[in-house]
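Re-run with default settings, no changes from the original entry. Doing this only to confirm the output is reproducible before filing.
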Amino acid sequence: AYDVRGIYGQDLTPEIFLLLGAALSEQFSEFCTCSDTRISSPALRLSLIAGLLGGGAKVVDAGLGPIGLAIYAAKHRRYAVGYVTASHLPPEWNGLKLYEPGGRPISLEDLDRLRESVERGVSWRAKREAKVVIEESLLNSYSEYLRSLPRAAGNLRVVLDCGNGAASLVVPNLLRELGYEVITVNCDVDPLFSARGCEPTAEATSFLGDPVRRFQADVGVAFDGDGDRVIFYDEKGRPLTPEQAAVVMIKGHKVRRVIANVECSWLLDRFVKETGGTVEIVPVGRIYIIYKSIEGYGGLGVESSGHYVTYEGANLDDGVASLLYFLEAVSALGGPVSSHVPPTPLARRLKLHVGDEMKFVIVERMKERLSSKYRDTTTIDGVRVDLEEGWFLVRPSNTEPVVRVTIEAGDEASLKRLEELVREELREAGAPL
């Protein structure tokens, strides 16, 4: 919802990126472009550059790299940045993520203004002298910056799966230079992500457990297509949830302040509060943990989809920085990863197809009903109810005509009771069940 996305050749074309570039040139006189490694990214990036030049902008093209390259260029080099990517989506998709100078991702309001500018019609009368500078050294500068982040590194064996994506360009060499022993899987760039797709779910990366056990590795890790999402495995070859991985980070770095989205498991909230820390709850979406970090909240940001903001927001939700932070925590704690991981509560997720307009109506009705019945409710994104035996969240999807329901409880009986309770409330609110 906070970037441009579509299927290449259908609702996303080079012509659209040409117009986007021209519209962006009206806002920024200097602009940095870069992209992930999917098959349509070079064509779209070059179209974006052509549009920027047509509007009179100076363009610094950093070429291919993980999304951390774009964040680095915006946050530390102070460029406005356009990064061509569809992140974890299949190879036929592509899109554009935009950053302001300083690293702040553009808001929905900014995106709406950009859309209006394109629809209004762009001017091809360049107001400034346009030029393009090829800056391939920016990827090396980004890698050097990453090397400076950990206070201590090395002495761990890591099985690394880059998913044939953009992380392949940086992470294997980076880890070896930092002293880690690295066993690589899917670390050659493949624009079609043929091996396992580009979304690093526990199901898609389940094969990683075998090399982790076979090579007696300390940690397994897998990235998505552009390197912002990451999933970790313990030494037994078991995937960690984002919240479990966050607990390892919190323990190893002695974190006291955590930003977590409203969908995060209560194991995270309970652990932080039991150890004397505080949790700031934000809506679902990577952009909210980023904004809170930019505002100076500090600490660790955790998104239930596998995004993290680490090193006090040093490079925002860069998955490569998150990996370095996790490995540093594991080294600091000593012992196997599994010994530092709390068990996960039982969970159930429901997905109700209701239509784009109706999803908001149903969730508003649920807010009214549940807020009047339960004391511990959170309504920053849908409605979450916390009870002694568990919790549930009902919220509208950001990207689909769907109402999403998440339920967690400590045992099967409680989980079943909460699901029955939620289903009854949804029926009363008019949801089709």
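The domain at 149-340 is CATH 3.40.120.10 (Alpha-D-Glucose-1,6-Bisphosphate; Chain A, domain 3). The chain has three domains: 4-138, 149-340, 346-428.
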